[in-house]
Amino acid sequence: MSKIIIGRYLPGSTFVYRVDPRAKLLTTFYFIIMIFLATNWQGYLAITIFGLAAVVATGLKAKVFWDGVKPMIWLILFTALMQTFFMAGGTTYWHWWIFTLSSEGIINGIYVFLRFSLIILVSTVMTVTTKPLEIADAMEWILKPLKLFKVNVGMISLVISIALRFVPTLFDQTVKIMNAQRSRGADFNDGGLIKRAKSVVPMLVPLFIDSLEVALDLSTAMESRGYKGSEGRTRYRILTWSKVDLVPLFYCIILTILMVTTRML
Amino acid sequence: MSDKIINFDHVTFSYPDTESPAVKDLSFSIEKGSWTALIGHNGSGKSTVSKLINGLLAPDDLEKSTITVDGVKLAADTVWDIREKVGIVFQNPDNQFVGATVSDDVAFGLENRAVPREEMVKIVAQAVADVGMADYAGAEPSSLSGGQKQRVAIAGILAVKPKVMILDESTSMLDPEGKQQILDLVRRVKEENDLTVISITHDLDEAALADQVLVMDDGVLIDQGIPREIFAKVDLMEKIGLDIPFVYRLKQLLSGKGIQIPETVTSEEELVKSLCQLNLKM
């Protein structure tokens, strides 16, 4: 149980893995903005091809991405169907009470479906190929301008990295406490919602006390190792741009040109 | 004075909201390059001493109590200089692992000291290799054993080149094999880096490795001497609730039966040899 993976990172070796996490994070944001530039079928075709290209480039099985979309599939279908049946325009094929099935409606339903699915797909490309720690580093880099507003970015990033580092530790502790409670007859799986929620309390209290103890120990250890606050520290782990990062850059440029030209059609 | 690296002079310390002090009028000194064991049962004040040495705790009255580390007197403005000189390996392997990976953790102390990155990379690689963890440099703590995490903690201390290394119950959460490996490692790096080692422990097998043993009870230093002399005081050890190492216990039981084993016998091998010789004489 101790080898729990936080986030959904899957090890791999394609070039997507070697792209700097900052580039991946920015490209993901940029791609999502670009999706909203698509207004016609040419635009959606272009963005879909680009989205699928990113998916294929990860070299991972399709199931990984299906697992990403699956939890959201009902929400996506519901929204797409709302668009289909409530939007009128073009040729009307069918009409009953407040529901209308029209050519415009069908096309819009498909667009909404594509928009949602693409957003989830490209975010999945990002999260499965980037370690949580790398994402945290990338976020820190993006937050850097906040230093101008006296935000202590160095401390925020240390907090995030320590939090990520202690997730498996606290998870192990939870399992230990659960087993200890089980061995004394606690039941975490039976009963209604309220009964189950109640059975979590005797687990949370020791976990909470334990994490306070960890925090105290850790602060003692950090202080004895010379931690005086985040000012005036150097960094061991740094991100460096490489040639591979030109790929997402060109990807974004070509995508922008395509999206702008298809809008003009 | 020059060969004494740590000096405690009439040190008294009380935790807030407690009636009696955890450490009472404590005076002792530790020689440079030596290995000192500080023993005592839980709550005897031995861990408090380690925190006093590097200024994590400050004595009640800095006027009357003097703590000197490598010639520097502990005061509010020297506490960071003293922390440069003292590294502590704590008890819980998990709760002192700050970095996300082995290398990151070893680098933590260097980052705090604002060491330039190019230098840091070299020092970290060297320290990780020194403790035999080179194959795990990129590993995350959740994939390491307790003993491996303590090795990383030692590497983190070696990286900043202190004068004194304190083992604060560092082996108490490890299995016997892990414990032995850590002690062997400490012995090796002590010689290589010219360190002074202070091991705070209630495990007398660990204390037996020391040049000097300090015995604490209820915040007071009640005895000090070489391990052989201290362990021979069986009544004292039992009074403060510590388990005497096997060899000393056996020697005591044998002497009760009228069989005298020489004072110089301190290891299991020597005892076996001595018993065999005894057998020959009979």
TrEMBL record, chain A:
<keyword id="KW-0813">Transport</keyword>
<comment type="similarity">
    <text>Belongs to the energy-coupling factor EcfT family.</text>
</comment>
<dbReference type="GO" id="GO:0022857">
    <property type="term" value="F:transmembrane transporter activity"/>
</dbReference>
<keyword id="KW-0812">Transmembrane</keyword>
<protein>
    <recommendedName>
        <fullName>Energy-coupling factor transporter transmembrane protein EcfT</fullName>
    </recommendedName>
</protein>
<feature type="transmembrane region" description="Helical">
    <location>
        <begin position="246"/>
        <end position="264"/>
    </location>
</feature>
<dbReference type="InterPro" id="IPR024919">
    <property type="entry name" value="EcfT"/>
</dbReference>
<keyword id="KW-0472">Membrane</keyword>
<feature type="transmembrane region" description="Helical">
    <location>
        <begin position="106"/>
        <end position="128"/>
    </location>
</feature>
<feature type="transmembrane region" description="Helical">
    <location>
        <begin position="21"/>
        <end position="38"/>
    </location>
</feature>
<dbReference type="GO" id="GO:0005886">
    <property type="term" value="C:plasma membrane"/>
</dbReference>
<dbReference type="Pfam" id="PF02361">
    <property type="entry name" value="CbiQ"/>
</dbReference>
<keyword id="KW-1003">Cell membrane</keyword>
<comment type="function">
    <text>Transmembrane (T) component of an energy-coupling factor (ECF) ABC-transporter complex. Unlike classic ABC transporters this ECF transporter provides the energy necessary to transport a number of different substrates.</text>
</comment>
<feature type="transmembrane region" description="Helical">
    <location>
        <begin position="72"/>
        <end position="94"/>
    </location>
</feature>
<dbReference type="InterPro" id="IPR003339">
    <property type="entry name" value="ABC/ECF_trnsptr_transmembrane"/>
</dbReference>
<keyword id="KW-1133">Transmembrane helix</keyword>
<comment type="subunit">
    <text>Forms a stable energy-coupling factor (ECF) transporter complex composed of 2 membrane-embedded substrate-binding proteins (S component), 2 ATP-binding proteins (A component) and 2 transmembrane proteins (T component).</text>
</comment>
<feature type="transmembrane region" description="Helical">
    <location>
        <begin position="148"/>
        <end position="167"/>
    </location>
</feature>
UniProtKB/TrEMBL annotation, chain B:
<dbReference type="InterPro" id="IPR003593">
    <property type="entry name" value="AAA+_ATPase"/>
</dbReference>
<dbReference type="GO" id="GO:0042626">
    <property type="term" value="F:ATPase-coupled transmembrane transporter activity"/>
</dbReference>
<comment type="similarity">
    <text>Belongs to the ABC transporter superfamily.</text>
</comment>
<dbReference type="GO" id="GO:0043190">
    <property type="term" value="C:ATP-binding cassette (ABC) transporter complex"/>
</dbReference>
<protein>
    <submittedName>
        <fullName>ABC transporter, ATP-binding protein</fullName>
    </submittedName>
</protein>
<dbReference type="InterPro" id="IPR050095">
    <property type="entry name" value="ECF_ABC_transporter_ATP-bd"/>
</dbReference>
<dbReference type="InterPro" id="IPR030947">
    <property type="entry name" value="EcfA_1"/>
</dbReference>
<dbReference type="InterPro" id="IPR003439">
    <property type="entry name" value="ABC_transporter-like_ATP-bd"/>
</dbReference>
<dbReference type="Pfam" id="PF00005">
    <property type="entry name" value="ABC_tran"/>
</dbReference>
<dbReference type="InterPro" id="IPR017871">
    <property type="entry name" value="ABC_transporter-like_CS"/>
</dbReference>
<keyword id="KW-0547">Nucleotide-binding</keyword>
<dbReference type="GO" id="GO:0016887">
    <property type="term" value="F:ATP hydrolysis activity"/>
</dbReference>
<dbReference type="InterPro" id="IPR027417">
    <property type="entry name" value="P-loop_NTPase"/>
</dbReference>
<keyword id="KW-1003">Cell membrane</keyword>
<keyword id="KW-0067">ATP-binding</keyword>
<feature type="domain" description="ABC transporter">
    <location>
        <begin position="6"/>
        <end position="243"/>
    </location>
</feature>
<keyword id="KW-0472">Membrane</keyword>
<keyword id="KW-1278">Translocase</keyword>
<keyword id="KW-0813">Transport</keyword>
<dbReference type="GO" id="GO:0005524">
    <property type="term" value="F:ATP binding"/>
</dbReference>
<dbReference type="InterPro" id="IPR015856">
    <property type="entry name" value="ABC_transpr_CbiO/EcfA_su"/>
</dbReference>
